[in-house]
Amino acid sequence: MTVVIGADRSGAGKTTVTLALLAYLAQYGSVQAFKVGPDYIDPMFHAAMTARPCRNLDPVLTSATYVQQCFARHCWGARWALVEGVMGLFDGVPIADVPDFASTAHVARLLELPVLLVLDCQRLSGSIAAIVSGFCSFDPRVRVAGVVLNRVGSDRHLELLSMALEPLQVPILGVLRRDDRIAIPDRHLGLVPTDELAHLAELRDCLSDLAATRFDWEQLLPLLAAPQRSHAATTASVRFPARVGIARDRAFNFYYPDNLDLLAALGAELVEWSPLSADTLPDVQGLYLGGGFPEVFAAELAANRSLRDCLRAAIVSNMPVYAECGGLMFLCRQLVDFSGRVWEMVGALPATATMGARLTLGYRQAIALRDSPLFRCGEVAWGHEFHRSTLGPAPDRPLFRTQGLAASTLIMEGWQTAQLHASYIHLHWGTRSELPARFLERCQHWGE
Fold first, then answer.
1. How far is CA 337 from CA 16, 110, 254, 437, in A?
2. Tell me, what CATH number does 323's domain have?
3. pTM for the whole thing?
4. By three-state DSSP, how is residue 268 classified?
5. What is the pLDDT of residues 385-397, one digit of tens each?
6. In what residue span(s) does the CobB/CobQ-like glutamine amidotransferase domain sit (predicted)?
7. Where in the sequence numbering do the catalytic residues fall?
């Protein structure tokens, strides 16, 4: 069956509970993790706990059907599975006749899974009953299988919480006390990624030890069994053999595993390389520069002049290049960090990326204004933006016209020059396999 980890709001402890459960289960068998929404960083922690790629379940970026198929496909063969939700349980966006589209509750309904509700109890006692009662009754289609009480202060505090919940007959499946040992540092875009944490192994062991004694495993284990539902295998009717360089290191690590799987299924050989440490580009026919934190490692990127020169030369030679967000920033002429320091970047785009306090966040409908290695002019896709930088000057011939779900403001953004596609928009290719196929076809022709 398995469960979806939900909460009444953001910051209640979903990620801590999820990681503790994953770390403990992974000691005894294979466990597949999923994350609701477009997030990259939480899935990195899931993968670090399970040694398996975490899969994003996002019906805005893909579709409701794809969410169901992805879940069934990747649960297959795993002993346990777990889905971490996003924000509060019913926090979504109104689309069509679904008022909470893409919320944790929406995905729980799509997958027909119960919810394990995490509650931050540090400022609660008897009122917890009203909260749990409301979540249990708000949508009869969403079943609350139990609760996890997080940040419980004392035995007396737990006694008060338990007494309040007893009449509801909702089982308490976990109790976590306040514990600074399991705190994960964060910064301007959320948690610090796993590649930058020196104490990751220690954190995993601590979470596993915590889970061993803080959860009711007799009730939880049957709930967490991975469903073995029938699913269609993913096959590609046309293949485009090409070597594609994947920029992956501490500065660039925002990739949806499904995107990389699609490239491989279409015939690509994926070659990982590091813009931080490589002196030159690998022997490839195309490049995929994902998002990440070039602003944090700007000094190291600027110091690697030989690599920057090679990358600029590859773009001048019309090698197909696909760059998202952090990759886009790296291709700019300069990057101005949060301290106002200016760093030289690749220089393939006549723009400067400047870090700022304002967070640009949300789903975007992107309409292609011209052909690129992935898009045909006029095609539409849904993507996601998540950054604290701005680019200037604006492109003379923008790649996309974008619009948010609720906003009427149209934004022109993105760069397209010859075989280069560079944009702030993160794309999930799950339902758009023609996009990576076009990219690989360009790579194959360039190599020939």
1. 30, 42, 19, 35
2. 3.40.50.880
3. 0.96
4. strand
5. 999 999 999 999 9
6. 243-432
7. 325
